[in-house]
Amino acid sequence: MLKSETDEITFKNRNNYKTDDVKRGFEDGHIDSKILIFRDIIPMDNFIEHSTMLIKKLFPQWRHLKTKEFTDGITNQLILIENIESKERVLVRGFGNQTDLLIDRNQELKSYKNMIMLSKFGFCKTIYARFANGLVYGYQEGIPLDENNKKIAILIAKRLASLHKIQDSSHKEACLFKMINKWFAQMRTLNKLTLDELSSLEKLIEEANWLQQHLKTIESPIVFCHNDLLSANIILQENRNKLSIAVEFIDFEYAGNNYRGFDISNHFCEYAGFDCDYSLFPDDSFQKEWLKAYLDEYNGRESSDEEIFEIHKEVTNFTMASHFFWGIWARFQAEISSIEFDYRNYGLKRLTEYFKLKSNIETCNNK
């Protein structure tokens, strides 16, 4: 177990950070009962150096460190820091420029409490510290998913079903349109939007209202969702003899109560990647086999054809929500983010796919 020497650090540096006693009551015993809370802000333009300084403050027994920067994320910065002597490793995640506008940072406290809750169920590693614009937490060993065969897809389906069975103690309100409406409100305050862009924004707000009303006609339970289950957030783990394989999920920054149909359809959309190659989107046959594995695991019994038909209909409709959600997210990111990524083009592709799918669904409904 990583030792943070919490008490010693706290009393020597009381003005710099405080401890947050979190009552967990976990039986596994590997999670510390205290999480250090730093008031420091780590600058994004020199993130590795300042992250290393933070880790040396957090783990003073770590003398020689090795760092690795992960570049897959397009919202935040992520650094792996390893103690060369002990081989212990932690991750330092820094939230990108103004991402408090994108991910509800009022929910930041809930976010790390979610991670504590997820640790209890074996979905998340220990959190060691929070700082003003990020987290320090344990590293999940394994290999990021780079190809998705049917065997792995079924494992993902079962693992997601297990995640969806977790009971969040907070009231069950879906976060989908709450987040979209927040982004709309923030975009309205941006002085650099042209009149044409403001007009386009108002049309998107009208579209969001239509989508919300439409999805009310689709029965989809509110469950605890990952909300960002792309391949980079899925880790493959093999046992020592490589006789079996398991999957784990990482990066729960968008996690929270949401519609089941959104979480599943969003995962299917991620098959297309950031290039938005929708020729890679799972076909109906693949989806139904995936959904059967999901339902069997979730319900603890064999699923009927009717149940599979209904959840497939649910997921198809919520695929629109996935495209719309990330389309608006990307449009907002294009205005505020300092991270190098073509958000405008990505957002345009997602919204184009949304309108295409909407047209297909309306055509089918009118037949």
UniProtKB/TrEMBL annotation:
GO terms for cellular component: cytoplasm. This is ethanolamine kinase. The keyword Oxidoreductase does not apply. It holds the Pfam family Choline_kinase. SUPFAM superfamilies: Protein kinase-like (PK-like). Pathway: Phospholipid metabolism; phosphatidylethanolamine biosynthesis; phosphatidylethanolamine from ethanolamine: step 1/3. It comes from Rozella allomycis (strain CSF55). Keywords: Kinase, Transferase. Its EC number is 2.7.1.82. Gene3D superfamilies: 3.90.1200.10, Phosphorylase Kinase, domain 1 (3.30.200.20). One of its GO terms (molecular function) is ethanolamine kinase activity. It comes from the Eukaryota. Belongs to the choline/ethanolamine kinase family. InterPro entries: Kinase-like_dom_sf. GO terms for biological process: phosphatidylethanolamine biosynthetic process.
